[in-house]
Amino acid sequence: MNERQRWTDRSLVQLTLVRYREFLREPEAVFWVFAFPILLAAGLGVAFRSRPADRTVVAVAGGGATGEAVAEALRRSPDLTVKLLAPAAAADSLRTGSVTLVVAPDHWPERAVEYRYDETRPESRAARLLVDDALQRAAGRGDPVTARDRRMTEPGARYIDFVVPGLLGMNLMGSGIWSVGFAIVDARRKRLLKRLIATPMSRAEYLASFVLSRLSLLVIEVGTLLGFAVLVFGVPFRASVGTLALISVLSALAFTSLGLLISSRVQTVEGVSGITNLVMLPMWIFSGVFFSASRFPDAMQPLIRLLPLTAVIDALRATILRGAGVGGIVPELLIITAWLVLSFPLALRLFRWR
Amino acid sequence: MTAPPLLVRGLRKTYGDLVAVDGLDLEVRAGECFGLLGPNGAGKTTTIEICEGLSSPDAGEVVVLGRRWGENDRELRERLGISLQETQFSDKLTVAETVRLFRSFYREGTEPAAVIDMVQLGEKVTARVGKLSGGQKQRLALACALVGRPELLFLDEPTTGLDPQARRQLWELIERLRSEGRSILLTTHYMDEAERLCDRVAIVDHGRVIAEGTPRALIASLGAEHVLEFAVGDGSLDDALLRTLDGVCGADRRDGVYRLQVAELHRAIPALLQALRHEGASLTELRTHSPTLEDVFVSLTGRYLRDE
């Protein structure tokens, strides 16, 4: 009765152990947190792998001697694949995108051609430059400037390099919000929260157990995804471990608080799922997970910058890809901290134990 | 003399227009098992949750182990054991993990393994909560209530929804706790449960105590040694007429079944048969039983406990 309490019998330790057990015994949760981001990174890495630059496919409309002559001139360019098609077939190919540009050699010997292409397609604009260059040279244009090409694919500039920090940020957000939100609403629905506050349990320790378990799972989560990306895809890792840890911990705290806020009053699992998706969806779209957030109009940028996920992903990209230190990501860190400082006290204030 | 474990005076609680508890008094004495017996919606759960400090009353006084809620709740909770209605523990944890978690909330208490043995879940120590039967879950709830070695135990509808065998098993456990001299407040809408487990019972209806005493004294207050129930095939009998029959001290009728409170069976039955012959009615059912708390409730309210 009077023996000293073992540290494992302390309620904070027991509550945190419960968090691990509930997580590890839910195979789906383990899949979404650990396996899914890796599968996604693997899929995207394969789809957007670096390949030798494709040759641009263009069509010459109309057969006959003029068509042949133009096609012949174009074939001398190493960057072009040339198809000689009837005018109708050429127009068709352009519409369906199997050629990027059609050359109509109306009066070739008189040195007049027409380029038909869609100006909004970058590859068509590139094709126009290539085709025009090839034709002008064939017609005798000289190059006054000597240029030399040196081709490089630098790790850090590929799509996989771009997307891995995005996935990491998305994962921090998802597991932070879901792990707390679902568990708390489920316990409230089962009246387990009410049963717990009928004991002398400290309410702060109960909430702290979520944060503690989150932080320790975080190490595994960040480690597996980054380890996979570095080892398999050669994604550069230029961050200092300290900076990365700071961003990860701060983000996990901010997203956990957000999860706490979302679940502070909801009574049903369906309800919390809806609100969680409502909160996360805009960030999946706007925060630059899969493509740069700068693609959105300037007017939206201030709002997008204030989203927690944007700040997290920007900070992760800066430190992982460019090796930025804490000094280089101060605005992002401030935004993440602001979300934490605002949402946590509000969540505690609104929190319903029954 | 020390204060009683629980003292409630003039308790009132309303939810909007609904008066859940309407001036309720009760006292649980040290070492007794006290039962709040009443139909669903009588205000039993509201009352017990106010006593547990889980909700606050609109008016009235609650003194638990000599203290009031709001003074030092954490200290008070150290000394209480609580089993709520319809708590579901985490399905993913084992029995041992659940009890150990609850043990960790209390400064002093019983070894989890000892409590698990006590509620006869020794064979299920490593089983997940999700795999337990209803009765086993209810015994786990009892283990979690006992693990802090409470001075006062609150059990809200401990056997509701259980099959007869699981109920009897739980009754045996509660009887053992009672024989150990623990103070217990339990709520139930089963009269047989209250009769078997409780030293004293308060019958609650519409948020008030309408009768209180030992089960034996409450039943004796009917003044009837027997209850006689019968139904007739055709014709009908007047309640007032039945009350005047020899050996009958009370009568009522419900759903075509007449119910007589009878002091002397050997005089009441011939008188009843004679009355039936006189009215030209035929007897289709006849049974007698010793009166129960159910009969007390019926005679007080005109309704059955198991209704609504």
Strand element count of chain A: 4
What spatial form of chain A do the alpha-carbon principal axes imply? elongated
Instruction: Please tell me the overall pLDDT of chain B.
Output: 91
Stretches of chain A where pLDDT falls below 50 for ≥5 residues?
A: none
> Hey, roughly how much beta strand do the residues of chain A contain?
5-15%
> What kind of sheet is the major sheet of chain A?
4 strands, mixed
Gyration radius of chain A (Cα, Å) is 29 Å
> How many domain regions of chain A?
2
The portion of residues assigned to helices of chain A is 55-70%
- Which descriptor suits the 3D outline of chain B? elongated
Low-pLDDT ranges of chain B: none
What string, H for helix and E for strand, traces the elements of chain B in order?
EEEHEHEHHHEHEHEEHEHEEHEH
The biggest beta sheet of chain B reads: 6 strands, mixed
Distance between the termini of chain A: 33 Å
The CA-CA distance between the termini of chain B, in Å, is 42 Å
Strand order of the largest sheet of chain B: 5-6-7-3-8-9
Overall tally of domains of chain B: 2
Which structural category fits the helices and strands of chain A? alpha/beta
